[in-house]
């Protein structure tokens, strides 16, 4: 989902009254032949009835199309409220298929990395009010040609839920992919989604999220929307194999993503047993948004488990455990249009953020307060064929004791995307760079999209930076990939 689609607002179409065509037919018949007036008048009710049936059928068809276009991945994009069909409707298909293979020219662990991903679904709407959807996905990765060859297959539920609609109310229960946020790549208010780290940052944000069991209540009052989510059974982030090139732990070098190199840490990462802590409640979150002139605003309050894993160390037992502690969050966000420019921002304050203590308590988990902000600017230079999205991200951590993570970070990121050859080709560049920390990421991409819905692409990913940065951790994992993305 691009940021451009979030601003799309289409007026709800209104069908013409079913009786009006019959009245025009009656007047026309009276003008042409006075003798035919009585006969036309007698048939007018039948004509009106037929027109009404036709109008109702057209409305149902439009509703079916709108419902089919509404994806299970929910976001802050303004969505046209579609009326559910009056008759039972079955749908099925493959809504995500990716086949990709590529080269890792500098990685000692592997020379090639391949991915296959497929998501299938079936949905049933027995009435206007009820909807049931079941989905499953299969994905696998393989790396070959280096010091560690591995292949891994995984099956998981995709969006599988029961949903009820009534007026301006929508209730959903089941596994759902819920992505909150106005900005691209790093939305601070994305607090209820389940993160997929199996391919690090190779994919766009919605493709790096998975379904999480949730009870969701959505309520609309004209321009105001309430979105309340309860996570009764938490499932942690989906992690790659520990020997994968995209693992947050580098067992070969004894490094952990985001932490400096120290002899004690290197020994622990190389030799520790790796576990994970899952289950229990995931907490809950509340989001209130207002859409309209002069700008859109949002308020988010949450007490949820941290979506990204934190590796808690037990040096005595020689164990690292991926945990997701509870974090308290409050944030505001906004969006407005000024001429040809679209501005967005998110500001968040978090408490109880896990950090790794330094000094005498080296390696143990501490708690910090995080202040974060993202400001984004989107515009279309030269017309609609080119989109530019620029973002400034700021983060500050504060704790009562010294810790190992980067205390202050400022960086820019964004995307430039353009279509050419009458829309049959698309070229783009995703990028990120630290301002106070040496950290960079470049991801150029060119794709042929002339055979919709199929997309054939060639993409590259390059990382560089200092030890504690994302780019520095993956500096040897430059990746060039050829892939196919489609749906059926």
Q: Would you kindly provide a written description of the structure presented here, covering whatever features stand out?
A:
With 488 residues, the chain is mainly beta. The chain has 2 domains: 20-57, no CATH class; 70-486, Porin, CATH 2.40.160. The chain is built from 5 helices and 26 strands. The chain has helices at residues 3-6, 20-32, 37-69, 263-271, 470-473; strands at 89-103, 112-125, 130-144, 150-157, 160-166, 169-176, 194-195, 209-210, 212-221, 224-231, 249-250, 255-256, 273-276, 283-290, 296-305, 310-314, 319-323, 326-338, 341-356, 365-379, 386-399, 408-420, 425-434, 439-448, 455-465, 479-486. It has an 18-stranded antiparallel β-barrel. The chain has a 3-stranded mixed sheet with strand order 13-17-16. Strand 1 and strand 2 (112-125) form a beta hairpin. Helix 2 runs antiparallel to helix 3 (37-69). The longest helix is centred in the first third of the chain and has 33 residues, at 37-69. It starts with a helix and ends with a strand.
Name a few traits of the molecule.
Porin, mainly beta, globular, 18-stranded antiparallel β-barrel, 488 residues, 13% helix, 2 domains
């Amino acid at each position: 989902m691009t940021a451009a689609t979030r601003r799309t607002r289409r007026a709800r179409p209104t069908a013409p009254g079913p009786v009006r065509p019959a009245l025009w037919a009656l007047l026309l018949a009276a003008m042409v032949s006075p003798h035919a007036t009585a006969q036309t008048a007698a048939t007018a009710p039948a004509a009106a009835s037929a027109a009404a049936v036709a109008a109702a059928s057209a409305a149902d068809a439009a509703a079916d199309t709108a419902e089919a276009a509404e994806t299970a991945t929910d976001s802050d994009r303004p969505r046209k409220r579609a009326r559910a069909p009056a008759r039972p409707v079955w749908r099925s298909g493959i809504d995500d298929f990716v086949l990709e293979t590529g080269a890792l020219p500098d990685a000692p662990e592997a020379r090639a990395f391949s991915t296959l991903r497929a998501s299938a679904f079936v949905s049933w709407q027995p009435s206007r009010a009820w909807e049931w959807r079941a989905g499953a996905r299969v994905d696998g990765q393989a790396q070959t040609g280096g010091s560690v060859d591995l292949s891994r297959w995984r099956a998981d539920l995709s969006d599988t839920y029961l949903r009820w609609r009534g007026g301006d109310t929508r209730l959903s229960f089941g596994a759902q992919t819920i992505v909150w946020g106005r900005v691209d790549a790093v939305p601070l208010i994305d607090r209820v989604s389940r993160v997929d780290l199996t391919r690090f940052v190779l994919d766009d944000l919605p493709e790096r999220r998975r379904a999480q069991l949730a009870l969701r209540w959505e309520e609309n009052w004209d321009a105001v929307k309430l979105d309340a989510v309860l996570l009764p059974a938490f499932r942690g982030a989906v992690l790659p194999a520990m020997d994968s090139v995209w693992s947050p732990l580098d067992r070969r070098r004894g490094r952990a993503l985001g932490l400096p190199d120290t002899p004690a840490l290197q020994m622990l990462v190389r030799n520790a047993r790796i576990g994970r802590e899952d289950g229990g409640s995931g907490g809950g979150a509340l989001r209130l948004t207002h859409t309209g002139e002069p700008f859109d605003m949002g308020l988010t309050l949450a007490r949820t488990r941290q979506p990204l894993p934190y590796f808690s160390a037990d040096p005595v037992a020689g164990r690292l455990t991926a945990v997701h502690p509870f974090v308290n969050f409050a944030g505001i966000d906004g969006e407005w249009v000024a001429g040809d420019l679209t501005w967005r921002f998110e500001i968040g304050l978090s408490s109880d953020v896990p950090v790794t203590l330094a000094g005498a308590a080296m390696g143990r988990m501490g708690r910090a307060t995080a202040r974060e902000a993202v400001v984004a600017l989107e515009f279309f230079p030269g017309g609609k064929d080119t989109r530019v999205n620029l973002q400034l991200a700021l983060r500050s951590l504060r704790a009562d004791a010294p810790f190992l993570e980067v205390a202050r970070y400022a960086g820019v990121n964004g995307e430039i995307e353009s279509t050419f050859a009458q829309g049959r080709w698309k070229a783009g560049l995703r990028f990120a760079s630290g301002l106070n920390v040496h950290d960079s990421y470049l991801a150029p991409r060119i794709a042929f999209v002339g055979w919709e819905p199929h997309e054939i692409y060639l993409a590259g990913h390059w990382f560089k930076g200092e030890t504690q940065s994302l780019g520095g951790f993956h500096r040897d994992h430059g990746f060039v990939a050829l892939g196919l993305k489609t749906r059926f």
